[in-house]
Amino acid sequence: MNEFVEKLKKVARGRTVVYIDSANLERSVRDMWVVEKDIPEPLKGFNVGDLCWSVDYARLKEFFSLIGSYQGTRFYTADFGSDNHRKFLYFLDKRLNFKLITKPLKEYSDHTADIPHRKANFDVEIGVDSASSIESYDTMILFSGDCDFEYLIKFIRGRGKIAIGFSRSGHIAKELPPALSHYFDIVDFRKEILKIAPRKAKSPGSCDPEPRS
User: Fold this and answer.
1) Backbone dihedral region of 79: left (phi > 0), alpha (psi from -120 to 50 degrees) or beta?
2) Which tens digit of pLDDT belongs to each residue from 75-104?
């Protein structure tokens, strides 16, 4: 039995909503090491270095639907404009019923053409959405380690709500764990919400999410 899952079930009360800062979540998971004991049987023939963790959003939705009185998941992501990413977003929207909040990537001129600086920050959107709908939930589960959320978390808790954070050790600002009602390391939920997959040949440093039925 996963003691961290049991703790989460105890501390999450009432109506529960999940907010996902997708860039922060994907970046945290991408940097996780794969160890042999976690490799599923169909991938035993792969070298550890050829495998990586990625988020299994179907499993994530299934898992959190059993936490408290699940009210849904809000997913904040840049729209990359590619066919694969659009299919992925369609999967989240139509198959998993996630509420999608997207915007185009903003490209900055302080990097070279070969190494562009692109960003789509959703701190304001998550702050406004969670604050304006505060009467619709009792527990907010936030996937992000951004220090900018400290003020939001204190606001939510000041109104009697529970604020639970998920991130990775080394990917969360030091201000957040003390501000949160509870903090959990994603690595302790890897069997519940993640999966191991081969790294993509065309992008050896990444293990990007793809739609799964």
Assistant:
1) beta
2) 999 988 889 999 999 999 999 999 999 998
